[in-house]
Amino acid sequence: MFGFDQGNFGNVQAFKSFRKEWCLGRYGDATTCGDDGSLDNDDWNDHFVTWGATLITFGAAAGAILAGPPLQPGRRPCIQIGGAVCFIGCIMASYASFHSVVEFFIGRFITGVGVGISCFALPLYNAEISTPSIRGATGSLFQLNVVVGCFISCLITFLDKDWYVGMLLPGLAGAVLTVGGFFIPESPRFVMEKMIHKEGPEAAMNSGLRPLRCIRAGDCRPEANEILAQIKEEMDIDHVSFIGLFRERNLRKRVLIACTLVIGQQATGVNAFLGYAATLFKQCGIQDPILFNSIFNSVPSAALGLSARAQ
């Protein structure tokens, strides 16, 4: 879903049908909204293309911050909610946009909110249901699926120039998440954490065994005992506030390293290439920017695929 969302708009913005729908008559005429004229059309690029790409990021941040940390309904419902919100946002930005720029922008923001919720809940869910031996691999699969989604969305938009379909792609993945959520168990750890506070360790053990048996073969009780022991241990540990993270030197160092790595990754500017791909590559003199963008997105997919195989 996140990969589709990153890769679709970079190509869709170059579609003639898309510029006819949103540029012509609003931000320019037939010349300034054409293949070459749109590159120099600052009104179109600054007031529509930029916001169309950026609102996704704002929405994702809002979804992760506002709906992610509490996760009160559970990991599985949050995944489903994120997928459903993304689907609604994509519908609003495509078939239900009603030729309204405001409606399109709202749809893009809502799409980002859905992505943010799921991107918070899904890795956490994967980590909690995976056995320790494959936990690292399932974590890396998240990023692999992002770049694979980018590549697939580029291929689809290269073959099908219908901008409605291109804008709907992340929502289709979101719909799969929403429906698929009914066929997966809740996180055993989440169930046990909730139950231990309400009814005690024994009830938490019995509640955690039910979802654990859905994803494990054989006797699950030893693993459930281990999870319960970890939860009890964490309950006895004093929680550190956000301010406390920066007071202790050891914690401050870890936080700064973790945040710097993430900031550095984003500072490479790869998302700018994804969000404005067709426009950027066209300005570089590439005759077929959509084809080139497909090739561009195939590189990280192949690299991460080889890395995952090596792991």
UniProtKB/TrEMBL annotation:
Gene3D superfamilies per the UniProt record, alphabetical: MFS general substrate transporter like domains
Protein topology in the membrane: Multi-pass membrane protein
Subcellular location: Membrane
Keywords per UniProt: Membrane, Sugar transport, Transmembrane, Transmembrane helix, Transport
Pfam families: Sugar_tr
Catalytic activities: D-glucosamine(out) = D-glucosamine(in); D-glucose(out) = D-glucose(in); D-fructose(out) = D-fructose(in); D-mannose(out) = D-mannose(in)
Transmembrane segments: 48-67, 79-98, 104-125, 137-158, 164-184, 255-278
Domain named Major facilitator superfamily (MFS) profile: residues: 1-311
UniProt main location, coarse: membrane
InterPro entries: MFS_dom (IPR020846), MFS_sugar_transport-like (IPR005828), MFS_Sugar_Transporters (IPR050360), MFS_trans_sf (IPR036259), Sugar/inositol_transpt (IPR003663), Sugar_transporter_CS (IPR005829)
UniProt family annotation: Belongs to the major facilitator superfamily. Sugar transporter (TC 2.A.1.1) family.
Subunit structure: Homodimer.
UniProt name for this protein: Hexose transporter 1
